[in-house]
Design brief:
By secondary structure, the protein is of the alpha/beta class. It has a single domain, classed as 3-Layer(aba) Sandwich (Rossmann fold). It is about 40% helix and about 20% strand. The protein is built from six helices and eight strands. An eight-stranded mixed sheet has the order 1-2-4-3-5-6-7-8, with helices on both faces. A hairpin with a 6-residue loop joins strand 1 and strand 2. It is globular and about 45 Å long. It starts with a strand and ends with a helix.
Length: about 240
């Protein structure tokens, strides 16, 4: 499917239960490696719990998925070179572009006949978690739940978190954030008054949810589901 945006169409895919019913909407931002079988599996598993999950190619300005060739398994030997190729694209995801795209993604999501009325959720992985956080901050009346995993959620500064009204879960890799930085982040979240959890997943490295990488940690992925599913259930039921 194609999502119209201000800078041209963004290719995307959706996963949802095929029961002829309406479901709460979830906008899922992938990690920097983009849409691929692992991301499709994550979206499909979430959809099995009763959600319409929309996954856009946020690098659409560079072309359709895949924007770079990826190996079937992304090992540590591959990661540095791949990230070096992706960094200019990541740097191009300015807040202005992110929010323009987010308007388009959310408008497309909520217009689907399979998506019910009411609030939506946004989730993301790696750089997608930052995009999810920006999206939730810019749409306080629409986004009721935000979840981000191994993501630089505070990259825009702690003040950016003060605009959040959604219920939040941040799952951090142990190698991505120090306990001191986590404490500072959580104090910022405390000032918002929103329901939130923000924690380091023990023994993890960046990318722990991605089964096609050396970073993958099965126990951490299970914990991710144990945090994500109750969050969505609580927050979207409020609508």
């Amino acid at each position: 499917m194609q999502i119209p945006t201000a800078d041209g169409p963004a290719d995307a895919f959706a996963a949802y239960p095929d029961h002829g019913e309406q479901h709460p909407g979830v906008l899922m931002y992938p990690d920097a490696f983009g849409i691929r079988p692992t991301i499709r599996d994550l979206a499909g598993e979430l959809a099995e719990h009763g959600y319409y999950v929309l996954v856009p190619n946020f690098f659409h300005r560079e072309g359709a998925t895949p924007v770079i060739d990826l190996p079937e398994h992304i090992g540590e030997a591959d990661r540095s070179a791949l990230i070096a190729r992706l960094m200019p694209l990541i740097d191009g995801l300015t807040p202005e572009r992110t929010l323009s795209d987010a308007d388009a993604y959310l408008g497309f999501l909520t217009a689907q006949s399979e998506v019910g009325p009411g609030p939506v959720a946004v989730t993301g992985y790696c750089i997608g978690g930052l995009l999810a956080t920006r999206t939730a901050s810019a749409h306080p009346g629409q986004v009721a739940a935000l979840a981000a995993f191994h993501a630089p959620v505070a990259a825009d500064g702690p003040e950016s978190l003060l605009r959040l009204t959604a219920d939040v879960h941040f799952g951090h890799a142990a190698t991505d954030i120090s306990p001191e930085a986590l404490g500072e982040l959580n104090r910022s979240l405390d000032t918002t008054g929103i329901d939130h959890t923000s924690e380091i997943y023990p023994g993890t490295v960046h990318g722990f949810t991605m089964s096609d990488t050396d970073a993958f940690a099965p126990a951490a992925l299970r914990h991710h589901w144990n945090r994500l599913l109750p969050l969505l259930g609580r927050a979207l039921a409020k609508g």
